[in-house]
Known about the structure:
With 209 residues, the protein is mainly β.
Amino acid sequence: RLQNGAVPPIENADGFLLTPTIAVSPFKNLEVGGSVSYISYDLDHSRPRPGETRSFSGDSGLSDLTAWGKYRIIEKDGITVTAGMQLTLPTGSEGDGLGTGKVVPAFFGAVRVKAGDGYFLGNAGFRLNHDATILDSDVNGRNSTFFGGGYIWEAYENWLVSGEVTAESERFDDSDSPFAIGSSDFRATGGIQYLGLPQGVEKLPRTRS
C-alpha cells in the first residue's frame, strides 16, 4: 500500500494499484501498448459526496485505460532515445474516484542507457487535462508535467524486474471539492515483465511512459 498520491487523482487516501501491461513492436523502432489498473483505496477521512448524506470511505474497481505509441529515434553505444504519445480513455468510474470521464492526451520522451545486465530509464512529458466531475465534485483541469526514472534488470532470459519513481504536477484545481483531488503525484512502482516474442522479432526492453 502506498500513501498520498498512490490513487490518482485522489490525494488523501491509502490504496494499491495492480496494473497489467501489454506492449508489442509491430514494426522496427515502433512500440504500441496499453495498460489498465485495478484500484482499491480508502480515504484518510470519510465524508459524504456532494448531495449525499451517507459517508463515503473509498471504493475499488478498474481505472481508466491507457494506450500509447512510441518511436525509437536514436540507438547508439547502448543509449536509446524514444518519443511518443499516450492516450487515457475513460473506462473508470469518475463517480467512484476511479477515473476522470475524459479522453486525456499526453506527450513524452524517454531515454534508456545500458548498464550491466539492465538499463537505467528516464522519461519526461506533459499531459493535457480537461475539466471533470470526480466523486460528484467539479474540478478544473490543469496541464501537468511529469518525469520519472528507474532501473530495469534482466534477471533471467526474457524475464525483467523493474523499479521506478515518478512524479507529476497538479492535474486539477479542486478548490470547490470536499475531497483532495488533483494534487501533485509522487509514487514508487515495481514490476515483473516477460518478453514473449516470436522468432525474428527484435527483443526491446520496455520503458514505462
